[in-house]
Design goal:
Length: about 200
């Protein structure tokens, strides 16, 4: 049933709010359930303090070995924002976004050898924190992938003058929403098994 997950999570908030204000746990679950990608923005600028709030949320993410390999490039320059879609078509929404944050991984601040690619997990966790924080404070955002497509990586490195040790993972377009798309229901019990993949399905 469409949006059943969102409805169930929000039902908790509605039921509890009839007796008292929602708890931090309820607010957190509602933020997770109702966040969705926003691709249209108003011209309103995002203040510096608000940007720092997003970055603080991003840096609160878990990280392998506490190495914190994430690095961030904050973009408000209109010419840079407009130039990205000329080479990365999936970033067309940047033409209306007042802000973008590029999340990068620092290869000099991650593990050596086979563990090097843990930076991708670390930077992805930081990105999700940023997306949730944006939604929680009334902003809209969308994750646009860069890594591992080498053409995109090379373009963003050149555009942002990134050193070789920094790999751009994604571009997050951010702003005040100019659309209100319904969140998608992504709950699929068929994707879950108990104990092993040959075990019982989740019911």
């Amino acid at each position: 049933m469409k949006n059943i997950t969102i409805a169930l999570l929000c039902l908790v908030v509605v039921a509890c709010s009839s007796r008292h204000s929602s708890s931090p746990a309820e607010e957190t679950l509602t933020t997770i359930a109702t966040r969705t990608s926003i691709r249209a923005f108003t011209p309103q600028e995002v203040g510096r303090d608000t940007v720092e709030t997003l970055l603080r949320a991003a840096m609160a993410a878990p990280t392998a070995g506490n190495l914190q390999p994430w690095r961030f490039v904050v973009i408000t320059d209109r010419s840079i924002l407009d130039s990205v879609p000329t080479r990365i078509e999936t970033t067309r929404m940047l033409s209306s976004a007042p802000l973008a944050i590029v999340v990068c991984g620092d290869l000099d601040s991650t593990f050596l050898g086979e563990g090097q690619d843990y930076w991708v997990q670390d930077a992805s966790a930081a990105t999700e924190n940023l997306l949730l924080a944006a939604h929680a404070i009334g902003l809209g955002a969308v994750w646009c992938g860069v890594h591992p497509l080498e053409e995109r990586v090379a373009f963003m490195r050149e555009l942002l003058r990134l050193p070789d040790n920094l790999v751009p993972l994604n571009i997050i377009a951010i702003g005040y929403p100019d659309e209100q798309p319904a969140p998608k229901d992504k709950w699929k019990p068929g994707n879950i098994r108990l104990q092993t993949w040959e075990g019982d399905a989740w019911q």
